[in-house]
Amino acid sequence: MSSVQAHVFVNDEWVTQTVTADDLIASRSHPRSVIPKPPTPPKYGILTRTIIESPITRWVLPVQLRSSRFNDVAFVGDQSVQISELVSDTQLVPIAKKVNFGSRIRNCRVMGTHEYLKTKRHITYSNYQKADGFASQSSNSSTPIPPASDVGLFQQILVLILSEELVFLFMSRTAAGDWEFVSSHHSISSGHLVDPGFHMTISPDGGYLALACSEHLFVVYQLESIQELNRQHSEGLPIQPIKSLKARAVKGIVHKLEFLHPDSKNVSHVVLLIVTIQSGVLKLAVYDWESSEPLQDALKVEKAGHRLDGTIGLPLLIIPLTVCCQFLIITEHSMVICSDILGGPPDFIPFELAHKDNTSWHHGTNRPMWTAWTRPMREELYYANTDLIYIAREDGWMNLLEIIGNSGVETSIYLGPLECNIDSGFASLSTPNGELLIAGGSYGRGTIWVVEARKNPKQIGQLPNWSPTTDLVLTKGASTHSKSDGKKSSKRSLLPKKTRSRMLAPERVFACSGRELSGAIVELRYGIQAKIGLDLLYTSPIKRCWAIPSFDDTLGGGFFMLLALPETSALLHISHDLSDVTEKSQNEVKFDLLSPTLAVYVSKGVIIQITTMHATITSLTSCYQHSISDLIEDSDDPLATVTDAAITKEVLALSVYSHSTFKVMVFNFNGSMFVKRHILRVEGEVTALSVNTLSASVCVLAGLSQMEIPTLAIFPVGPSQSEEQALADIPQAPINLNLGEGEDIDSMAINAVTSITCHGDQIMVGMRNGNVHTIRSVGGSQLGEDFTVARTNHFGVSPSRVSAGMMFDTGPSTLVCNDAGLAIMKESDGKRRLDRFEQIFRVWLTDANEPHLSSPTINSVARLQDIQDYGDSTWVMVAGAHILITELQPDPGPVPRYIPTRGTPFGVLYSERLEALATIVIKKGIPSLHFFDPITGADLSHPTRRISDQGDERHVDVDYISSLGKPNTKITSLLNWRYKSKGNTYEWFVILAREGDNVGRISVVSAEQEAVVTHTGTVRRIRFWTQFKKTRDGYPRAGATDADGLFLNVGKTVEYHVIEDKRFKAAMKYDLPSPATSLEAVDGHLHVLTAHHSLVILDYKSDAAIHSQRMVQIYTDEFPRNGLHSINMKSFIGIGERQQLILMSNLTCSVYGLWSLGPSSNTSNLQSIFRANLTRSIKKFVHGHTRPRWTKDEPRYGRIQSLPDRHDILGLAVDGSLLQFSILPEDAWRLLRYIQILAVTSEESRLVPTGYDSTRSLELDASSTDKIEMHVDGDILQRCLETQALERIASTTEQLTQLQELLRALDPGTEEGNNSQVPDETPTAYEYAYSILEYYLSSAL
Q: The pTM is what?
């Protein structure tokens, strides 16, 4: 009897069974079972936010958007513009960055003339005249000296081409004195150009702009002068740069478009060169007109042009020369100077450059091409008859050409190579001692070089670039703690879950980057960068340090570094340029170096050092030294010791241990001696000491440990008294604040105050358990008011030490030293009083000479602001025995760390067992497996071949493991396989490769750690070898693993292989509609993302699949999509037992949320519940715990409560940018979406990216069929938060009422357990909205 296979709903799941005709007839005689109603898809939204911008720099342009006084440069990427200033010490200082363009920047040019050298000359001459008493105006100079008021007038404008508009960009000062971007946007008529911006040029005088695409058309715009635009802006008028425009059709395809320099005798002459291709013939056409002539007349007739000799080749670069209306044509095989272009058929003068071999930065079989050019800055008169041009080759070589008049190339000098790939990013800037060259390309880091006269170029810096990125992985923060002994683990398991989570370090983010020599594994980090300028290694560990000025003129300036050592002190003299360091002996200095230093006070002309033995007062003319034993005068206990000290310009406080008790002694300082004022009796141990002014009263703050309870005691000692009156043993009424409340018993027993610092009336307290408390007074400004802990942040498991940090625009900051790393806490601007997520950033120390090193653990910091010529941003940091002089950057940003691979990395994995990163490195086409230490960046690789020798197995060193090391091998996947067999678990690495045209190779690799003893100590290596391998017809495109087997995609087939008798055996298969792009095994299901048919979910564990040896399709996307990557969200959004939510990206820059309704549904289609349209495609998703320890991770503000902690979802884009994704419940989505709607519909253009589609629906309808409405753009919300825009965009009664209703739906007060409701007061409603924005937008790094 015939039978069929059918899907049957049995035991709450769909299974495949063989059904006969009798079974079908019999089933009709029984009542039908009721299929349960399928669950309703949830109403989730998605929030996206860019946390690291793309590092790609397409153009580097010297530009004066602020004033002619500033030597600025613009770094223009696909989505951003960064303005930096080149200062006198050849450092590039960031000024401002703009990222909210909304679409890709297709091209850019500078409008106006660069006049930095002219302005600098005038300023120098003016200062010279003033110094000599001459008149301010020279009779020999016809150009007036620019007044100081011109600082606010822009000299040039940066013109950008976006998808459908021109953007004119300059900078202006705000009321607060900061620089901000000002832009003017002008639509490009779609009827004129298709995808404009492929060609773009601006005339040398900035009067005309020409655009063209590859079609048969170009457009010329006549522009207003810079002076006119300055007038419009200063009068508050909208900027209108365009006066007129004219489109001109041409025959053929536009290949190049450039304005030429006019002849010096006719500066009003405008010359536009256009190179076209028609039927394989190249033509040069010139359109020229007088600037007074209307554009309509100038471009009225198409010019026939002159035929270009085909032997020259296709022009790669057209370089206009400043002399005689000439230009250079550079092709792949030749270089010519073209002249007399206006007088008929042009003359072509060929020239050749000396041959240079290809560098290691060239990738390809053809000869490297010339890709960019720049003109060095010279005075205007210099270029009247001479031109200098730097041309750059893609492999790093550079040539300086000198052209004089009609004589052609006079000199040609090769420079470099510049040790980077060079694309279109290439520029020259002027410095006092030469020229600064900046070069960058499409992959790998760029470089910064100084070219001085008659010297070889010297590299002084690099441009960060980790694009292109191909893979992303997270390291597990728990690995550091997994090796504890059983006793400690048992104790830790008794700790509260919140405490245990604090002990885990955040996971770190690593990406594959670059090609060949630029290849690296890059750790993606975000925070404040501290650039190391000097790294000194002292002979012993250092507890603390202080920077003090030098009073000795014979030392030639510089400063001293006073070090507190465990038993003594040390004094180092450091020259001003940091080039010379000498240690001083006790006989050479007046400081006490024989005992440990406890405190140092530095004032103008006075330095006070307090050690355990002496108090030393040093000035320019005198030195006084007092014995500590004489100061404390404890005749009853000759063993009394000073344990800590704190000093200001008027008060000294000493912590004295005597007769098994502690006391605090307070002294006044009168210039040469100390006078005892108070003796403060305390209970318990003094663990920290500080003297500060609170509410205009001098206070001694002591950290006490009383009965194992940490306490902060505040002793008001009143205003300092000028008379020398000793007030012994006067009782004080301290304000005691218990700092142990809310702590678990284990942590409280070991907790204590470690350090104290103050900002005004705000007290920052570092604790032994890693916490930092912010303490404020409650009530009025009188000191007698109570104090309370306003907030607590957890930084790590080791003691946190706090120090006063830099002063920012928003207020002071605090530096926190901890095992988790150095962090900086930026205080709020005082506009908001509620408990908020203040800005805390990790401080990452970087060394340009060793970029692979991790940021060291800092145990002490000291500022250099009291040292002449050093500002508030220069700090000394101590890491063990290392003394680091660093420069703190003012703003947070990406701080990438490069682990060089010396080849192209393919795929990256993290092995928790080996504590190493695994990757395939391809060098000159030959692949090899490598393991890198994620902490040190060292290559741990030790490839071997395991052989049997008389029953024993031994390992033989080899260069490559078997199956690797061949030039015709192409790697397709690198997988981690945790294979389980007979109760054992093995960790293997699987390498999938193609050999030849269609031969596949599967290699399974084993690895283990080994210790190697060298002359420098014991180092670890990872020994690895091929466990077994298999060759097959057809190569695997992608793969995945589970505990039992290996999945392979070959062609359009998915195969599941298991191991039997040490051989692979195909257990089951499935035919796909298109090849797979990624595979993932999830809970007995295989998620297959296909190239053209979206996501397919297959069952391979059911009895039906095992019996038929074919996987069973259970879900598929109802719409075909070009899938890139997907990630299963079920494990961290708390959904139903058999339901799933998958995040999927595609090639068209979209991200979808696909929902499976579960087995009780009668459909196998995945439903889309949200969609996000981004500006770049997501290459890889990862999820994990990447937030710093101080981030509050409790569910708040409507966040899904079933999550145990805050799981972060990150997405790596193909351009190197990193995005974070958050799944929003409906109430949170409604609020955040409403704020986005307010921003989009407001008149504040800076809140919304240029080109943002504001025509989409602005309704809060979660059931809409247009799932794009469920997307919330976090970048828009971030700008609302940064600019404090809520009060302006939600200003009407209707808007505010709806905002309050949406806030009540989240009810953050109830979630925190105090049953509070969102108040009706308008200011408080804004405060709650800001707090919610801060929570959802807080960075995952």
A: 0.89
